Amino acid sequence: MNRQAADVLEPRSEQIRPQRTLLSQPGHFPPPRVERPAAAAEPALRVLVVENEARAADTLVVGLRRHGYLAESVATGALALQAHGDADLILLDLDLPDLDGLEVCRAIRAVGDTPLIAVTARGSELDRVLGLQAGADDYLVKPYGFRELLARMEAVMRRARPRPQASRVITHGPLRIDAGTREVLLAGRPVELTRKEFDLLHLLASQPEAVISRRQLMTQVWDDTWSHRGRTIDTHVSSLRGKLGASGWIVTVRGVGFRLGRP
């Protein structure tokens, strides 16, 4: 990320000497060095930078903090797997000293839906496809402009925000889905779902008699119209069935997609 230094560090009257900022305790984000304007109501976004090159990580962290983000960095895949749970957004370099970046991406995506941007020197079409299929929400090739990175971060976070739903509450037998609070109750008991699991279940429940195709699921749940996410969809469906306590809640229609069932 060295070529980004000039773009990140905009001219200022005082001189700032970036220091390596590793997580002493995974998931702990210290206060940002620059406060957001008083008018900003939303809390600062917590960004985890996974970058093994110290100078590049320092430069990026300083730039993000100047723009009001709670930025922190780790240098290895192992530390990233410990720290990602408390981050709102992850910037992941795929070239790490201990673990393959794609495997780190898959591991993070397997346990949650934290927005993730792959930031790497791997720039071929195949590399991009593999990164997106591994679960990255966006893919940025080095060298890049810092303003482009900020714009991509904002775009990814816009897609991650809950979308307004036409029907606020859907009831299907003992299943109750509240789109406003994003809560699911089964026979009065709460069911803890990830963001994508909720979006998938709500989409199926909003059209209870219809079969939703895999392509439609990719488009509406994952904002992806072209890559093959078959295994990702199957994994989320399997997880949903387990959390709902019965496989009959989501019925597989071979060669087409899925529909909501009633065990």
TrEMBL record:
SMART domains: REC, Trans_reg_C. The keyword DNA-binding applies. Gene3D superfamilies: 3.40.50.2300, 6.10.250.690, Winged helix-like DNA-binding domain superfamily/Winged helix DNA-binding domain. The modification 4-aspartylphosphate is found at D93. Residues 167-262 bind DNA. Residues 46-157 form the Response regulatory domain. InterPro entries: CheY-like_superfamily, OmpR/PhoB-type_DNA-bd, Sig_transdc_resp-reg_C-effctor, Sig_transdc_resp-reg_receiver, WalR-like, WH-like_DNA-bd_sf. Residues 167-262 form the OmpR/PhoB-type domain. Residues 1-36 are annotated as: Disordered. Signal peptide: none annotated. Keywords: DNA-binding, Phosphoprotein, Plasmid, Transcription, Transcription regulation. SUPFAM superfamilies: C-terminal effector domain of the bipartite response regulators (SSF46894), CheY-like (SSF52172). It comes from the Bacteria. This is Sensory transduction protein RegX3.
